[in-house]
């Protein structure tokens, strides 16, 4: 799905991950996301880093 979205111009992904949910964090990390340090309603905001966005756009 992420590749399909990138091929259509989407470059930024965002996820809200519970700190104790390692599987969700692993998926977010595999998509190039990093934790931002922001927490909303007990969930940490993860987002793609600018350098990852550029690397995926070159493919």
Task: Write structural notes for this entry.
With 59 residues, this protein is an alpha+beta fold. The chain is 39% helix and 31% strand. The protein has helices spanning 2-7, 22-30, 50-57; strands spanning 14-17, 33-40, 43-48. It has a three-stranded antiparallel β-sheet with strand order 1-3-2. A hairpin with a 2-residue loop joins strand 2 (33-40) and strand 3.
In short:
The protein is α+β, with helices and mostly antiparallel strands. It is 39% helix and 31% strand.
Fraction of helical residues: 25-40%
| Overall form | elongated
Instruction: Count the E strands.
Output: 3
Which structural class best describes the helix and strand composition?
alpha+beta
Distance between the termini: 15 Å
Q: Tally the helices: what do you get?
A: 3
Low-confidence stretches: 52-59
- Please give the order of strands in the largest beta sheet: 1-3-2
Give the percentage of residues in beta strands.
Answer: 25-35%
Average pLDDT score: 85
The run of helices and strands is HEHEEH
The major sheet is characterized as: 3 strands, antiparallel
Gyration radius (Cα, Å) is: 12 Å
């Amino acid at each position: 799905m992420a590749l399909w979205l990138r091929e259509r111009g989407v470059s930024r992904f965002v996820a809200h991950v519970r700190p104790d949910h390692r599987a969700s964090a692993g998926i977010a990390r595999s998509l190039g996301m990093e934790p931002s340090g922001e927490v909303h309603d007990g969930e940490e905001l993860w987002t793609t880093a600018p350098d990852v966005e550029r690397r995926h756009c070159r493919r």
